[in-house]
Amino acid sequence: MKLTILIICSLFAMSVVAVTPVTVKLPSINSADDLRHQYSQQLQKLILSSSGSDVKIEWVTFPNEQQHLSLLDNRAVDVFASATDKEVEKKYHAIRYPIFRGLMGYRLVLVRKDNRDILANVKGIDDLRKFTVGQGSQWQETKIFSESGFVVNTSRHYDRLFEMLSKKRFDLFPRSVLEIWNEEQIFSKRDIVIEPHVVLHYPMSLFYFVRKDHDELIQILENGFKVAINNGSFDALFEKHHADFIERAKLDKRTLIEIPNPFSPAISSQETPLYINL
């Protein structure tokens, strides 16, 4: 009898373990004007649901200025999307599937409405350096522009950067071809527009990062990406969110200006097919 009870209890314990979901804490934004993370959050849900694992998502809300990879250090979140560089990949584990397929490196430029044609005669990077640039103080882009000799004015606050542009604290606010259209609409009240003449480009990949010791989650995310890529759902979600933005940019009618990114890790041949070159 005791043996029977012991076996039943053991089977019950095993069943509890088997059905206990893995809780994954993901960051959320509490800004009504910041739409940048909608696609990434939907992609995270797709990847986790495609992984074949039982996963419970817990959204953790932070102000924009607190959104940083260091949230992984104190386990405030388990996954964080960020532009990569060589130092970041030494500290954290990169899930090396490019979230935005390399297109975050294609940048159009927000300017003040009265400066709409400020870049009409710009032909290369030397011409571009005559103008001051605004960027987030913790963004990888700040290092990229500074390394290339630009004067960069920064703020920790995302919304504040649009105010700084409007108040002439800097001349140019380069934004991704995938982000800029919503931003122009949201901040149009500040007389901010997209200038029509140039497109900047530098190598930039955004990956999901996790702690290096989080082996279970690393495997879950790897599995989820493989499934979503193979069944086409990754492509479908990307197209749903971004195809119109890419078309509207009309990059073939703009002057392309290349900016070096010495901080970017090399892209492997296995990863290359996931990138889009415009």
Explained architecture:
With 278 residues, the chain is an alpha/beta fold. It has two domains: 20-102 and 204-247, Periplasmic binding protein-like II (D-Maltodextrin-Binding Protein, domain 2), CATH 3.40.190.10; 104-201, 3-Layer(aba) Sandwich (D-Maltodextrin-Binding Protein, domain 2). 35% of the residues lie in helices and 21% in strands. It contains nine helices and twelve strands. It has helices at residues 2-19, 38-50, 86-91, 125-128, 140-147, 158-166, 180-186, 215-230, 233-249, and strands at residues 22-29, 55-62, 80-83, 93-95, 106-112, 133-136, 152-155, 173-176, 192-194, 198-201, 206-210, 255-258. The strands form four sheets. Strands 5, 8, 9, 10 and 12 form a five-stranded mixed beta sheet that branches. It has a three-stranded antiparallel beta sheet with strand order 3-11-4. α2 links the parallel β1 and β2 (55-62). α2 crosses α8 and α2 (38-50) runs antiparallel to α9 (233-249).
Question: Spans of 5+ residues with little confidence (pLDDT < 50)?
Answer: none
Mean pLDDT: 91
Q: How many structural units, i.e. domains?
A: 2
The rounded distance between the terminal residues' Cα atoms is: 72 Å
Under CATH at level 1, the class of the largest domain stands as Alpha Beta
Number of helices: 9
Per CATH, the architecture of the largest domain is 3-Layer(aba) Sandwich
Shape: globular
Largest sheet entry: 5 strands, mixed
- One letter per element, helices H and strands E, the order comes to HEHEEHEEHEHEHEHEEEHHE
Report the helical percentage. Answer: 25-40%
* Classification by helices and strands: alpha/beta
